[in-house]
Each structure stands twice: as C-alpha cells, then as structure tokens.
Amino acid sequence: MKSAKEISTESKIFDKLKKYPKCFELVEYLFHNEELQEMQDYANNVSIKRLGFNDHGPVHMRQVAINAIKMLNIIHESGLQTSLENEEIGTFEDSMCAVVIAALMHDLGMMIGRQGHEDMSVVLALPLIDKALYKVFPDNIHKRVVIKSLAIESIIGHMSSRKIHSLEAGIILIADGCDMTKGRARIPLAINNSPRAGDIHKYSANAITRVSISHGENKPIKIDIEMSADVGFFQIEEVLLTKVDSSPAKPYIELYAWVTGNEKKRYL
User: Fold this and answer.
1) 92 versus 53: which is more confidently predicted?
2) How far apart are CA 137 and CA 142, in angstroms?
3) Which CATH number fits domain 183-266: 2.60.40, 3.30.300, 1.10.10, 3.90.550?
4) What does the DSSP assignment read for 63-124?
5) pLDDT, tens digit, for every residue of 149-184?
C-alpha cells in the first residue's frame, strides 16, 4: 500500500502535468503499475535495511520527478529548447515523458546493489518502459523509440559516471542530486546507529532543511539550499556539484547554499 507521502507527491506530479495530456496518461499508467511499485519498494528495502544508505525508493523517485518537471518547465518558459526540440526529432512533451520515466525508474537497480546500479536500472526498467510507451503511443513507433532512448540515457547517466549529451538527461542528473533533504536520511538514521562506511551521506543529508528550485536571477534555474549545520556542505560539494559539473544543463543553473542565519554562498 502506498504511503501518505507517496500519494501526496503523486498529486503534485499530476497537477504539474495537466497541460501535457500524453505525459499525464503515461504517469497515470505508471502510478497504477503494481510491478513498478513493488520494484521501487524493494529497491528501498535493499538500500536502507541491507546496505544502510539513504532513501532510494518510491518517495525519492517521485521527488526526483517533481524536481525534473520543475526544471524542464523553467527551461521551456525561458525560451530554451530541449535536445529533442533543438534536433527537430521530438516535442517538448516527448522530452517531458522521457524525463518522468527516467525519474521514476532511475534507482530500480538498487534492488540488486549499489555498485553499477544505474546499469541494472536500465535492464530492469526496459520491459516497463516498452509496455508503458506502447500503452500511450500504440500507433507511433517513432515516439516510442525516441522517448525510450532518451529515458535510458537519463537513467544510465544519473550517477555522472558516464558522459551524457542531452539536456534532458542532464536535468535528471541534477534533479536526482537535489533530493537531499533530511527526510531521505530519517529512516536509516532511526534504524541503524552503528558506525559504517557512507555515514557522512546520511548525516550530511540530515542537515539539509530546504531545497528550492525556481526561476533564476542571472540564469534560467536557481537552486537554493538551506541547512542547519556545516556538514550539509558535504552533500552539496561532493554529491550535487559533481552531478552539475557533468550535466549538459550546467550553463542554465545558479546555485546558492547557506547555514540558517548565515550569509548565502554562491557556487554557480
């Protein structure tokens, strides 16, 4: 059964996709797909209970979707084109479909383990992607091929371990890095207090109190990060900035971070 947080996040996603009927239909299908839900739940079980990592399950994947939708809409509203639009091979809605699919499936590989999980995510996601796209675009093989290919690039590139080339995949890379608030660390911190490798990620994420994505002042997208303690800078400098530096969307990002009560620090 879905948690209240999952249901609330889904409602926000639906609200943001109202003007994109095909993408709305796609997300509706995915949110009712029991196999995808079970896979997301199991990925989270492995991540938190077996490996001691942060949340990599249904709430995280939905939050990444919200982050990506926000950023893609800002890009669109700023008069910029996605890679599919620029190459005249697809529409903005096609780009949105690919980004949402990638967001909801990028961490399925955590079902197997952390190492190389982005590659395993593609293997596990492919049958789900094919079924979903055939449901929404039964008579348009061009859209199915283009959207699937872009979604796969976005999934396999979300760890910045592989060079990506599309703006859409770059958006997923940053959207994933932006889900760093203390909610992601709440469960692992509660169930396991014994020291282990990787703890800095949990304590760092626990210091992040707010991440907001909005229209920028000098660049299209502004990311604001507020934290309760300096340890939060680890999450920004070692995780998020690594992803931003590898992203084709980097030229469109301005990034600020600060400890509550202190002066803002501008990174980009």
Assistant:
1) 92
2) 9
3) 3.30.300
4) HHHHHHHHHHHHHHHTT---HHHHTTSS-HHHHHHHHHHHHHHTTGGGGT-STTHHHHHHHH
5) 999 999 999 999 999 999 999 999 999 999 988 654
CB 216 within 8 A of CB 229: no
Reported as a pLDDT band with limits 50, 70 and 90, residue 200 is low
Residue range 47-53: mean pLDDT, rounded: 88
The radius of gyration of the chain from alpha carbons, rounded to an integer in Å, stands at 18
CATH topology of domain 4-177: Hypothetical protein af1432 (1.10.3210)
Contact present, 120 and 109 (Cβ < 8 Å):
yes
- Report which residue type is found at 236: I
Rounded-to-integer distance, Cα 237 and Cα 17, Å: 32
Q: Where are the beta strands (DSSP E) in 195-267?
A: 208-215, 221-227, 253-259, 265-266
Sorted by where each begins, the domain ranges of the chain are: 4-177, 183-266
pLDDT of residue 39: 98
Measured between alpha carbons, how far is 154 from 177 in angstroms, rounded to an integer?
13
Q: How many CB atoms lie within 10 A of CB 21?
A: 11
Predicted TM-score (pTM) of the model is 0.91
